[in-house]
Amino acid sequence: MQLTRYIQELLYQYECVTIPHFGAFLTRPLAAKVSDRGTFYPPRKEVTFNQLLKTNDGILAHYIAQKEALTYEHSLRLIEKEVSNWKKRLKTQTLRFPGVGEIRLNLDKNITFIPWGKVNFDTSSFGLSSFKRKAYNKPSIQPKIISTMENNNDDLMFTPEKENTKKSPLLRYAAIGIIGIALLGSSYYFGDQYVTEQRVVAQQEAQQKIDKKVQEATFDLGALSEIEIAISATPVEEETVLNQNYFSIIAGSFRSLDNAEKKVEVLKEEGYTAAIAQSSAEGLYRAAYGRFTSKKEALNLLYYIKYTLKEDAWYLEEK
Q1: Range of the domain at 300
Q2: What's this model's pTM, rounded to 2 decimal places?
Q3: Which candidate, 17, 10, 15, 51, places its Cα nearest to that of 30?
Q4: For the chain, how far is it from start to end, CA to CA, in angstroms?
Q5: Section 197-204 average pLDDT
Q6: Long-range contacts of 315-318 (CB under 8 A, 24+ apart)
Q7: Is the pLDDT of residue 165 over 60?
């Protein structure tokens, strides 16, 4: 039975491999380092031996049972037999564990372990070996001397090297594409905004022309004969005016009358025939873009504000 080979294989998997009634091999992880002489050592696991850990933990016996196709009790007896031989040999000679190290007795008859250090039991560093890094010498750049025979400029002694200004054509095309997309997006946005503003200006100018023509219009009614009409003075009841229905386009509702009136003033500055509309049942004051006696006119203004100017507004029928 090759017990030493099984110990070496288990050290790759476990940090502690105990040999019953003899001792235990332990692995200690070490980080990568660089020596003073410039030698690089990868991460590794260093092997030590502790003769005080003798209690059987079952790892070695189970592993041997699987490898040799034996029972656990049988593999344990084989380990005890091998350990007995090691103790006898240790009195006169050195025990060698291939890939792990050597065990011998010193002058005081105490066990001394000497690791070989040739095998790295850190599986994460498999294939990495130590190497000595080479010193980096920065290359010196010699200036170019231009002969006076080749250049008529006598004062020019050195010429700087031309930088490579070539760029990747792919990056150039990508930059052109991004700039083009940005220009298209901005032109669409500002163009749409410009068209909307021109519509508002055109409608305002048209309304002003209509009002001006109405004010300047004169009518020739001809000569009228005198007619005597008997008029009886009767008080005019204001109930008909009060009962007039209004169709309003509301811009906002406010709890404060001052805020509602401020909103109306802002709307008037923008060119609307704004006014205070009928208050809500909750006592909110409503500022309207305009109040109309014609439902059609009110709806036309509502559609213009909502779908052309893209602003919030809603329709209210006052009764």
Answers
A1: 243-318
A2: 0.40
A3: 15
A4: 110
A5: 65
A6: 315/247, 315/248, 315/249, 315/250, 316/247, 316/248, 316/249, 316/250, 316/277, 316/278, 316/286, 316/288, 317/245, 317/246, 317/247, 317/248, 318/245, 318/246, 318/247, 318/248, 318/277, 318/278, 318/291
A7: no
Distance between CA 37 and CA 131 in Å, rounded?
11
For residue 113, being part of any structural domain is answered with: yes
Phi, psi of 111, deg, nearest 5: -70, 130
Number of domains into which the chain is organized: 2
Q: Considering only CA atoms, which of 62, 26, 19 is closest in space to residue 45?
A: 26
In a domain, 167, yes or no: no
Cβ(63)–Cβ(14) below 8 Å? no
Does the pLDDT of residue 174 top 90, yes or no? no
Q: Where are the alpha helices (DSSP H) in the chain?
A: 3-11, 59-68, 72-90, 169-216, 239-242, 257-269, 295-303
Answer yes or no: is pLDDT of 309 > 80. Answer: yes
Mean pLDDT of the region 180-201 = 67
Last residue of a domain, one of 97, 115, 131: 131
| Residue ending a domain, choose from 102, 131, 160 | 131
CB contact set of 117 (below 8 Å; sequence gap of 6+): 46
- Whether 228 is in a domain gets the answer no
3-class secondary structure, 307: helix
On whether residue 220 sits in a domain, the answer given is no
Q: Which of 284, 279, 289 is nearest to 314 (CA)?
A: 289
- pLDDT of 250 reads 94
- In this predicted structure, the answer to whether residue 80 has a pLDDT above a threshold of 70 is yes
